[in-house]
Amino acid sequence: MLTWRKSALFVLVFVLSIAMIACGSKPQEAAKPADNATASGSAQANPLAGKKIALIMQINLGTFSAQYIEGVKEQVEKLGGTVTVNPADGDLAKMSSNLDAAINQKVDGILIDHGTAEALEAGVKRALEKKIPVVAFDADLKVPGVTVLEQGDAKMAEQTLEQLAKDINGKGNIVKIWVAGFAPMERRQVAYQAFQAKYPDIKEVAAFGAATQNTALDTQAQMEAILRKYPNKGDITAVWASWDEFAKGAARAIQQAGRTEIKVYGIDMSDEDLQMIQDPQNPWIASAAVDPKDIGRIQVRYLYQKLHGDETPEKVVLEPVFVSRDQLPKEQISTTELSKHVKGWGGSQQGYTDWLKQAENK
Q1: Which CATH code is given to the segment(s) 153-289?
Q2: Cα–Cα distance between 313 and 302 in angstroms, integer?
Q3: Dihedral of the alpha carbons of 177, 179, 180, 186, in degrees to the nearest 10
Q4: Pairing relation of β-strands 263-267 and 109-113?
Q5: What is the DSSP letter of 319?
Q6: Does the predicted model carry a pTM greater than 0.70?
Q7: 55, 93, 100, 264: which could form a disulfide with 284 (CB 3.0–4.6 Å)?
Q8: In a 3-state reduction of DSSP, which class is residue 361?
Q9: pLDDT digit string, tens, across residues 298-351
Q10: What is the pLDDT of residues 50-63, one digit of tens each?
Q11: Domain ranges of the chain
C-alpha cells in the first residue's frame, strides 16, 4: 500500500512538472508584445497609414483623366491609403450625391475634380463640419478651409495663342473650340478675349464646343461640318482647342479631310495626345499642360497635409509648360519620358514636406 502511494506521488509530481514547463514556455511562443512594438513604431513613423480617400469627379473622360487618377492612386498608396473613384459622367446632381455618400461612409479625406459651387458647396461644408478635409482641383469653390488647385489656365491659353499668332504672322481665320460652365474654361476664355483684342487681324470664323461622353467624336463631327462650310485652302488658318478632347476631335477631322495646312493648338497633355503631336502627318502641333499625374500627386499631398494638421493655402497654382512638335524626338515617347525633352515637365515637388517624404518610405 505504501509502495503504491509512493508511485502515485511520483506520477503526480511528474505531471505537475510537465504542466509547469508547458506553462512557462507560453510567453516565449507568443512573442506578441515584440510584434506589437514594431507595429507601434511603424504607426508612429506614418500615423496617417490606412486612410480611406474618396475622389469625387464631375467627369472621367479620356487619357488625361486616366493619368490624373493614376497620379492620385500612386500618391495615396505610397502613403499607405486607399482610394475610391466616384465619377458622375458630367451629371452635377450625381456628383453632389456622390459627395454626400462619401461623407456618410465616413471617409478620412475627400478629393474633388471639377464641379460647380452650386452643386458642391453644401456638401463640402458638411464634410468640413464632420472634420473631413477637402482638396479640390479645377472646381469653382471658395469655401474657407478648402484648398483648390488650378493649372495656371490663363498662362496655358496665352502660351498656345501666342504661338498660334506667331506661326500665322498675326493674321488669318481661326476656329475656337471651347465650352462654358467649367472654372478652368472660364479662365481660359478671359485669356482668349485678351488675345482677340491684341490681334485684330486674326478673325474667329467659327466657335463651338460641348462636353459630352463622346467629346472627341462629337467634336470631330462638328469640325467636319465646318470644313465643308469653309472648303478652300486659306478659309481657315488654325484651330485653338481649349481642351485636349477638343484638339483630338478637330485634328482627326482635319487630317481625314486632307486639310493639314490647318494647324491645331491645344491644352492638356496625355500619352495619347503626345503621340498625335509627334506624328508629322497630324495637324496638332502644340499644347500647353501640366503633367496630369503630377496634378493627382500634388492634390493628394495637400490633402495629407490637412490630415496631418498642417496649414495649407486656399489656392495652389500649378505651373504649366509649353510642348511643341519641334521639341520632340522622331521616335515615339510617353509623357514619362517627356522631361528629357521639355524643361519643367513632370516630377513636381510641389506640396511635398519632409514628413511626407519620410512617410512614403515606411
Answers
A1: 3.40.50.2300
A2: 9
A3: -60
A4: unpaired
A5: P
A6: yes
A7: 264
A8: coil
A9: 999 999 999 999 999 999 999 999 999 999 999 999 999 999 999 999 889 999
A10: 999 999 999 998 88
A11: 52-150+292-319, 153-289
